[in-house]
Amino acid sequence: MTVYALAVIDTNTEVYYLQSPGALFDDEGPWKQDNSYTVVHIHTQVPDMTGFRQTSYYKDGTWKSREWKGDYYTWSGDTESWSFNSSKFWTEVRQLRDTKLYSCDWTQLDDCKLSITKKGEWTEYRQGLRDIPADNADTKELDKIIWPTQPS
Question: How many domains does the chain have?
């Protein structure tokens, strides 16, 4: 039987590593580099390697399908379900927020040439950025975050 790809499966049933055709393949079974992983040969074509990793998992000797939930979800092979990874999500939101804050730090300097009114607008904008986590506490998607409007 033709082997089209090789998958290294972690203990959580997920594809840890996916090797494309044209390479030498390890034998199926425990992975030589780390015995806690398992090598599985894939006997069908895998045209979209990323999509395969996101929507496929290997459990009880069988490839199974799952719906891809996104980067902020963690897969559980035991329950065969996704759970929202709040820490990962909010880390990214805070990084985006901090970049926005950093880009307008200059507006708060004593030697800034902005009028008092404009400086106040920037102060309010910056406070709105700091309030992002509290104001969007139930949000689970980056494109659903409500960002304050930057002053002109």
Answer: 2
